[in-house]
Amino acid sequence: MLVYRISKTKYAADLSGEGAKLYGGRWNNKLTPCIYTSESRALALLEYTVNINIDDIPRALSIITLDIQDADIYELNLSQLPGDWKDVPAPSSTKDIGSNLLNETKNAVIRIPSAIITNEFNYILNPKHPHSKNFKIKDIKDFIYDVRIKLK
C-alpha cells in the first residue's frame, strides 16, 4: 500500500525516525523513533499544516510516497483510544500508547485514525522493526506549500 508524508527536502529520504525521536509527536514520546505518514497526499498536507507555524514552513519541502506491506499493519481503532486522544496539545496518553506499541516491535506499522478527520488514517512506521527494510520510497517530489492554507 502507498502512504505519504511531507518533509523538509533535506530529510525526505531519511527513514530513521530521528525527527520524531528528537521532538516526539501525538503518537510517540521523545526518544521513540517513528515516521508519520498518511493514507493520502491531502491528509499528509493537513497533518503537516496543523503541526507547523506559518513562519516555520521551509522553502524546500518534498512530498514522499512510500510503499509499505499490508501484512505489517496493526490497526488501532477508535474504541481502543482514550477519551482525550484528539486534545491539543497531544496528551501523554496517546504518546504512551504509541510509544508502547512502537517499542513492542510486534508490528512494523500502526494504523491510527486521524485527529483531524477520524474516518481517515495515518500510518506510523516503526524504523526499529525488522520489517522496516520493506519500507520503500517510491517517489520524492518537490512540494510547494500554498500559504493560503494558513492565512486567515
Notable characteristics:
3-stranded antiparallel beta sheet, 152 residues, 7 strands, globular, Diphtheria Toxin, domain 1
What would your notes on this structure say?
This protein has helices at residues 18-23, 41-50, 92-104; strands spanning 2-8, 35-38, 61-67, 73-75, 109-113, 121-125, 136-143. The protein has a single domain, classed as Diphtheria Toxin, domain 1. The chain starts with a strand and ends in a 9-residue tail after the last strand. The relative contact order is 0.26. A hairpin with a 7-residue loop joins strand 5 and strand 6 (121-125). The longest helix has 13 residues, at 92-104. The protein is of the alpha+beta class and 152 residues long. It is globular and about 40 Å long. The mean pLDDT is 95. It contains three helices and seven strands; from the N terminus they run βαβαββαβββ. Helices cover 19% and strands 26% of the residues.
| Overall outline | globular
Q: In which range does the helix fraction lie? A: 10-25%
**CATH fold name, please?**
Diphtheria Toxin, domain 1
Evaluate the radius of gyration: 15 Å
| Number of separate domains | 1
CATH architectural grouping: Alpha-Beta Complex
**Structural class category:** alpha+beta
